[in-house]
Amino acid sequence: MLEDLEKKSALGDPEAQFQLAQVLQHGLGVRMDEDAALELYHAAAEQGYERAQYALGEIYMEGRITPQDLIQSYLWFSKVRRGGNSLSKAAAESCEYLDPHMTPEQRAEAMALTSAVDETVGNGASGT
Question: Where in the sequence is the domain holding 41, given as residue range(s)?
Answer without folding.
Answer: 1-47
